[in-house]
Amino acid sequence: MRKFLFYSVLLLACFWSTQSIAMGLIASPEACLECHDDVIEAEDFAASVHGTNGCVACHIELTNIDAHMEGDLMPGPVDCARCHNQEFKEYYDSAHRFDHVNINLTCTSCHQDIHEVTSWKGDKQQANAICISCHTTPAEEYHTSIHAKGIEAGNPDSAACIDCHGIHAVASVTDMDARERALFRTEPCMTCHADEEMMHKNEVFPVAVDTYLESYHGKNFHLGYPEKAAGCADCHTAHQVLPNEDPASSLNSENLVVTCAKCHENATNMFVQFYSHGDMTDRANYPILYYTYIAMSLLLVGTFGVFWFHSLLWMFRGFIENNEKKKALAAGGQLHHIENPHKIYRRFTKVHIFMHLLVITSFLLLSLTGLPVKFSDQAWAKVLMDFFGGSANAALLHRLGAAITFLYFGMALVKSAKFLFYKLQYPAEFFQRLFGPESLCPNLRDINDVTAMVRWFLFLGPKPTFERWTYWEKFDFLAVFWGMFAIGGSGLMLMFPEFVGAALPGWVFNVATIIHSDEALLATGFIFTVHFFNTHGRPEKFPMDFVIFNGELPKEEFVEERGDQWKRYEEEGTLEQYEVEKSSGALYDFIFKGFGFSAVLIGVALTLLMIYAFTVGGHHF
Hints:
The chain is mainly α.
């Protein structure tokens, strides 16, 4: 049966072929050229990319050669998509399709003599010539550019029209929305300029893309909001890209103010001294950026190194202490006998609690909106930025967090001034108040406390007791002052660039960016690791020390941790005024413990995300 079917099909095929030849269905190019040699050169057609095809491969209507020769059967328009399907799909959605822009652009508009088309073999001069034949205005700008000169010199790496706009999938810039236009003004440039090998070969600045992505402009691009910042073509122009030293260049020193003023209306000659592609690792060309970067890196490494080591020692020693307490309780005793251990005393006032709530709120706002910018290449950063509704909304929330920070900082200054200069509150001489036990200013006792604590860590002495403020609490407090000048000062400069740029050279924004970024990393990393451990994570406090939310401290904890303060209050006869008659209620505790745990969990989550970002690498400046 199978043999019968096979031979039947074979016979039908032979019969069809014979009839086709008889009817003139299959015609060789030579046969067609006997009549059409007046318009088609046989040699040119044979050498073309279509030379191996039969004529009816394109002119499919010619099903009968005799009828065609008699004039009864004429060919219609050629459908190139029959063979060039992918190219047609790209063309169909492009700006060149005739019913898209009401102009009659077809395949032959570019591939003009289809019978003589040869392979272009990457000849960008040939491609440019086709584009320029229609696009005369941009061609005039492009013709003077460094890209056009490279093409004319035969450099295949130089950008031609098709490198940016594509060959068939040419997008209509006028139909793009703001985001698409912004992407289009940057993405094509990155295609070549991100190739460091190509850039080195052509002696072009090799880290233009890296330095752009490390800037605020580039971070917006990375996060998916390119319309909110300048892209490559916004500064370099789209077609007339020229060397900076060329007087016609948009980046020439004489033209920079005009270029920057397209976005920064009040740009000045001082403002435009900003290093748009400043490389902080390049000591030779950007020494001030390099040394700022080195200084901040040393600050980060030094601070984290010391305090993480301190926390590790404390964690280990704390576990040992807890184990000793458990053994003492199991034996029917306790390490320290304290009468009425659960009696409550007030450690913080309502003003202290309110200020700390402001600190937590502002810090979380600043961290949640700032870290996505620092780690803009991370997927989680994009998720967070989208959650806030985009970089513009995140910037507003970031500034709200900054405003709250300035508020509590102002309150701290007022309270500090009142403490130091209002004698009725603390009747003592100025220096006694400044360096006394109620002050947050470091003093000689702190050196002794640090020494005693290290000795306890190393099992060389008993656990020390402290006064009202410990050395790590004083460090946290003073860090706010340093942070306000470092983060707050640099942040204000970056928030009001035109105002600052009217008086200071633009490179201060580069310095401010490094300081703001690294100091913010130091602050978030320190708070979410060291401060969280010192306050909530150490074994004797885990999982949370609630004192900052209700201001209340049990007597047992008061005596064990701040025994020197307890003794001083006893000697002064002031203990009674700190006794708490009514502790915070269940609803209050529920609300603020929920708030506190949420803050801790957010901090831990952000810490893990930062660790992940540094582990996988990327643009984190």
